[in-house]
Amino acid sequence: MSFTLKKKVLAIDYGTKRIGVACSDPFGLFAQPVGTFGRLELFKKLEAICLCDNIEKIIVGYPLSETGQRGTMIEVIDRFIEELQKAFPAFVVETFDEHYSSRDAGHILIASGKSRKERRQKGRLDSTAACIILREYLESHTEK
């Protein structure tokens, strides 16, 4: 089996306090945490990543309900996406359903054996949720 290098994909788990970011590997197989940032530092970090990491697109978690209904944060995220597209016009920005990503991130952190204190560290949950969003996106876009 041979693998072809691809452009990378970034994923964002947007929150009002913290924003988790994850990036795919060069083969588009794995999601790796980049970190968690405040809104002000996020755009500087994204600029640095996009300049040197061969990024193709940015995925933003979109909080739809189980039935596909728009969640309460949709308007806030829509405004964020507009700002993101203005700041990074060269990149495709897409949304991807993220319902349960934070809950699943919590389960993963518990299963990883992290202590309660480690799991509560600022941002750990947010960057893990961004990894889940990206992993699910990559799995749904795998060539078969």
User: Given the structure, what is the number of helices?
Assistant: 5
CATH structural fold name = Nucleotidyltransferase, domain 5
* H/E series: EEEHEHEHHH
Low-confidence stretches: none
Radius of gyration: 15 Å
Count the domains.
1
Describe the structure.
The chain has 144 residues and is an alpha/beta fold. Helix content is 42%, strand content 23%. It has five helices and five strands. The chain has helices at 39-52, 74-87, 101-111, 116-119, 124-140; strands spanning 8-13, 19-24, 31-37, 55-62, 92-97. Strands 3-2-1-4-5 form a five-stranded mixed beta sheet, sandwiched between helices. Helix 2 (74-87) links the parallel strand 4 and strand 5 (92-97). Helix 3 packs across helix 5 (124-140). It starts with 7 loop residues before the first strand and ends with a helix. The model has no long low-confidence stretch (mean pLDDT 80).
